[in-house]
Amino acid sequence: MNSRRRRIIATLVIAVLLGGLAFTFLRSRAEPLPQHPFFNGLRQDRALVIAHRGGAALWPENTLTAFAGAWELGVDVLEMDVHLTADGVPVVIHDSSVDRTTDGSGEVRSFTLAELQELDAAYYFSPLDAPGDFSLRGTGITIPTLRELFDAFPDAHMVVESKEDDIAAAEIILQLVQEYERADRTLLASFSHRVLQHFRSQDAHVATHASEPEVTRFLAASWLLGESFVVPDYESLFVPPHAGRIPVLTSRFVNAASNRNIFVAAWTINDKTEMFRLLNMGVNGLITDQPDMALDLVGSTPYAKAEW
Asked: Is-contact 186 205, C-beta < 8 A?
């Protein structure tokens, strides 16, 4: 055998070996992620209903009244937003100011807890089926603390979103989750990538969702059939159906996440037709202001798997 032929054979053998190693590597990375304990305690036979701000279309948002109503309906997960008060207490409110939802005015951070809880958190609430009805004004509905939520609903699975791009605030929230030993029932959320990184780095037991840059990378990988190359630091993807004109929730995206055992929830879905479309696509959860509507649909819609 001449040297040229030996070189060709050696090259082919090396190529086959390298190809085999690459295939094994990609297969190992493509295996589904182990399921996080947060999802182990939730039902697996249908899409989950996640009450956005406790069901903001049905009750005064982010209040004990809303979360109690949603829990009584039978929702799977309660979703809430958190800011800190002037005295460093995590309270459940969406906006950085109190103007939109209460009879007060000013930044949440400018109030002590005692001052904040003097405000009427139902002041501007009017139910969908009775617009202009402000009968819940003056009934004692206040902005709750996160601690009050943990005390009131010890068994509830919750999505707790830190609204501030503030590591100190994130740490206070995380410490409260740890104090109540509810890492298996709490998914920590934020629009801030660095806050999500802080949660992950400080407690490997808590679940998180993908940040915007992480969603972007996963979306691009799904287009290229390359989700096997993604090594996620997150357990879930909370995404809207579209980002501007770019479709996000497609059958390919949902299947790519399913291939990696990553939970996909669509937000914020309040239209019945859109709910039905997404359920038939195979999303794992609906984040909605109208959990009553969503519960009716998930109970009657087969749990689909996306096709592409």
From this structure: no
